[in-house]
Every structure is written in structure tokens, then in C-alpha cells.
Amino acid sequence: MQFITAVSRFILPVITLIILIKCILSLWLGHPKEKTYGYIIDMINGERYALNMWETSIGRGSSCDITLSYDNVARTHAVFTRRIDGWYIHNINYVKWKKLAELEGRLSRSNRKNTSSIIKINGTRVEDKATVSDGDIITLGNVRLRFEVADDPVQKVGKKKKKSASAPSPVKHDYPQYDIDRHYEEVGSYTVETPGKQSTKKKSSQPRIINKDTGEAFILCGNEVTIGKGRCDIKLSSRHAAKKHALLILYEDGWAVSDCSGKKGTYLNGKLITSPQLLFSGDVIAIGDERLFYEGGRR
């Protein structure tokens, strides 16, 4: 008995020390390193605020991650969020008011106009939330801020995406391939549409959808791209198109097209599709009376 007691007095402190060392190492190694994802620049005094988290609150209150000392800024005015498909800004006061209005049963257009806080992106008013891009001018009350991206999450989308078990098989066809190079010689450049702004660039090697009639090209980024005449990433003008007509999905094997319109239908190289189909360079997607040409890395 005395032997067991003597051994316990030696072993128990050693075990306790080992556990303590493991806990310290776990906390030290597991602590994430601070990284700057972007900046908010006060255009009044030029001060730069680093965005070091995926969610950053901004307002007049001292509890915010970024504090602005202006009377026309709310205590908690907005929240910037970094997601895998890009950056967003959320109007916190509008969300709070909307919940209150729904509880009181008086959610109306007039109330929304009078009580929603003021947030604008490049002059366009934001009520609930909106996407923000590099170089956008954001107005909180009367304060103008410039948004800069240091680490774009969209460029990293799909790098670690696992192969789907139900990945679609490619469509075999004898459809004549559209001459993309000749198209660029005729058009010369194309319009790249991104949330909040448009810019004109030279020919790119990224997968894209080209509208032959308008000469516009849309860079494909993210995991999903919507097509339709409603609030979609690629907006169509055809009256035969549905509000959300088709969906482009990024698989490990490449981009695929899927129909979302139901009875209206989406055609790939002249054939009606009933399931997601992989896209190959030169494929033609027909929606209503519009023709969209896909250019990518697969042939």
C-alpha cells in the first residue's frame, strides 16, 4: 500500500504536467494567424481599416470592430462578410426594423422608405444586403468609404472541391463548333459583368459564356451561375426566357448546364436537356431565341 502511494505521488504530477503541455501546444498551434482580407478607407481623413475577419461590423458604437466617429452613422450601421463567392455588406438597421415591423404587422413600402438606414454602393441604395467589389464606393449616412480587396475568395473556389458521385456524362454531338477566335477578331473585346460594376478587357483564358448577338462575354466564377431574365448572373432579354431559366454548375470535370425553367426548356447543341450536361468548348446553349456559346478548357 505504501509502495502504491509513493508511486502515485510521482506519476500523478507527471501525468498532470503532460496534459498541461499538450493543452498549451494545442492552443498555440491551433490559434489562427491574423490575415488581412481587405481594407476600408475613410475618404474624409484617409484612414485605413484592415479587415482581418470574415465578419466585420462597422458603426459609431465602441462595440463595433471598426468605429467611425460621425454623428450620421448608426451605432451598428453595417457588417461586411467574406464568403466563398465574394464580399457582402449587410444593412443591420434595416434587418432590425424589418423584424420589428413584421412583429407589429405594419411592413409597408412607406415604412420601409422612412425607417431603413442609408447605405449606398456607387450611388445605389442598399436595403438588406448587396455584394461589394474591389474599388466600390460605399456611403454610410454621409460618410464615403472605399472598399479594397486584398484576398479575393472567388479565385479559390473549387480548388478543394470533391468529385461528385452523380457527375453528369458529356453530351456526344456532331454540332458545328463556333469559331471563337474569329468572333474575337470581329468584336475585339468583351464586357465582363461583375457585381456592382462593368469593365472591358481583352481576351481571357478563363471559361466564359459568349452572347453572339450582343458580343458580350461573361466570365464564369464561383460554383454556380444563374441564367434568366430575372435577377440572374447572366441576364437575358428574350421574352421566352424564364426568370431563372438555367443554371451553370462547376463540377471537378468542368462546367455543366442544367435546366430550371420546366416546360420552357433549355437546349444544348439543338437537343433538349433533361439532366445536367457537361459543357465543351464550342457548345451552344439555346434559351428562347438567344444563343450562348461556351468557351472553356475542354474540347
Task: Quickly count the helices.
Answer: 4
Cα gyration radius (Å)? 26 Å
Helix-and-strand structural type: alpha+beta
The gross shape turns out to be: extended
Give the uncertain stretches in residue-range form: 108-116, 158-204
Residue share in helix:
10-25%
Q: Main β-sheet, in a few words?
A: 6 strands, antiparallel
Could you describe the 3D structure shown?
By secondary structure, the chain is of the alpha+beta class. 19% of the residues lie in helices and 33% in strands. The chain has 4 helices and 24 strands. It has helices at residues 2-30, 92-104, 109-115, 180-187, and strands spanning 38-42, 48-51, 55-59, 66-67, 78-83, 86-91, 119-121, 124-125, 129-132, 137-140, 143-149, 190-194, 197-201, 208-211, 217-219, 224-228, 234-235, 246-251, 254-259, 267-268, 271-272, 277-278, 284-287, 290-295. The strands form 5 sheets. Strands 2-1-11-10-7-8 form a 6-stranded antiparallel β-sheet, with no helix packed on it.
Properties at a glance:
alpha+beta; six-stranded antiparallel beta sheet; 33% strand; 4 helices; 299 residues
Give a concise summary.
With 299 residues, the chain is an alpha+beta fold. Helix content is 19%, strand content 33%. It is extended, with a radius of gyration of 26 Å.
Write the layout of secondary structure elements.
Layout: H1 2-30, E1 38-42, E2 48-51, E3 55-59, E4 66-67, E5 78-83, E6 86-91, H2 92-104, H3 109-115, E7 119-121, E8 124-125, E9 129-132, E10 137-140, E11 143-149, H4 180-187, E12 190-194, E13 197-201, E14 208-211, E15 217-219, E16 224-228, E17 234-235, E18 246-251, E19 254-259, E20 267-268, E21 271-272, E22 277-278, E23 284-287, E24 290-295
Parallel strand pairs: 3-4, 16-17
Antiparallel strand pairs: 1-2, 1-11, 3-5, 5-6, 6-9, 7-8, 7-10, 10-11, 12-13, 14-15, 14-24, 16-18, 18-19, 19-22, 20-21, 20-23, 23-24
